[in-house]
Amino acid sequence: MRVVKAAEDVLSAALRCAVYTQEIAAALGVSERFLTSAFAAVYRMSVHRYLCVRRLNLVRCALAGPQGATALVKTTALDLGFWHLGQFTREYRTLFGETPTDTLAKANGRSSAAPPEQRRP
Fold first, then answer.
1. Chain segment 4-61, per-residue pLDDT in tens
2. Domains identified in the chain and CATH numbers
3. Banded model confidence at residue 112, pLDDT cuts 50, 70, 90
4. Region labeled Disordered — which residues (predicted)?
5. What is the distance between the alpha carbons of residues 6 and 53, in angstroms, rounded to a whole number?
């Protein structure tokens, strides 16, 4: 628990940065394997998955927040360390049940769905 809490403190200090397992382990003075075991015990997921879910949540907050009106999905995703945008969109949809564009549209008070005449049957 102590190692996971310390890792979360490291992550909080770098809130809008993409942080990697080896950087966290080095900052805490533990091995990557020990860090991975600690996260598996506490969160039932790998550090890598935890970091991905964390970054997905940061993207969602950025798109849905008050600054979301001026945000671009691509720029926000790239800023938070997602380099493969197709994979990012799939993971985002899996986690939140909507696309990043849908989140942004809701934040801006409009629907992202195409008008009825443009929808496919």
1. 999 999 988 877 677 889 999 999 999 999 999 999 999 999 888 998 998 899 999 9
2. 2-110 (1.10.10.60)
3. low
4. 102-121
5. 18
